[in-house]
Amino acid sequence: MRFLSCVVLIIAVAAPSQAQWKLDDAFKPAKPADLEDVKSTPAPAAAIVLFDGTSLGKWVKRDGKGEVKWTLKDGAMEGVKGHGDIITKDTFGGRFQLHVEFRVPYEPTGQGQGRGNSGVYLQGRYEVQVLDSYGLKSGKNDCAAIYGIAAPTVNACKAPTVWQSYDIEFAAPKFENGKKTEPAVMTVHHNGVKVHDAVKVTTDNTTSGLGGDPATPGPIMLQDHGHPVQFRNVWLLPVKE
């Protein structure tokens, strides 16, 4: 009887996590394509591969020192609630293109920011929001928003549990004699759809960013917001000025 009780307990604990990656009959997609994973984009030869599905060796915790203990499974890394944000060991300045593939869990009872919440931060300071915003009218805090700055022009979300992609063209702010002359600029494609076109980022640190001197390079940061969001195939391509 004691052994049986342990087995039942293990199943009960594991079941909620598994359920988050399976849609139920209550979910009604707007169109079949919303249930199709985005096609994965291989890294170009000149790209810096930040995550290839096999190792978290290029990442550390937000403090810049701690070992990353996010879960590795099936070629993806999954955020672990309470572990905290993770950043790349390397920092990046100037102009670059960042490619990230992600998927959000199915959390139908969540409200607002409580559904598959995470974020991709450029230089650790400028966030492109990750959220389950499927079927919603997008705002400045929804999926693919430049958080708090600009809503995506189109809601290009796929259904939760389905792989999606960001391709973000980023230009760091410019400074002369310690004075900012140009703000950071971002163009974002979400699942191949352009949702931001050369948007000027009107702050030097969006909510929960790393802050620091905006004239200096910064890492890529992936946010732990308490939800098991997954990421795969993360690479960065420097662009010559």
From TrEMBL:
Gene3D superfamilies: Exo-inulinase, domain 1. Residues 1-19 form the signal peptide. Residues 47-236 form the 3-keto-alpha-glucoside-1,2-lyase/3-keto-2-hydroxy-glucal hydratase domain. InterPro entries: AL/BT2_dom. Keywords: Signal. GO terms for molecular function: hydrolase activity. PANTHER family: LARGE, MULTIFUNCTIONAL SECRETED PROTEIN, LARGE, MULTIFUNCTIONAL SECRETED PROTEIN-RELATED. This is Putative multi-domain protein.
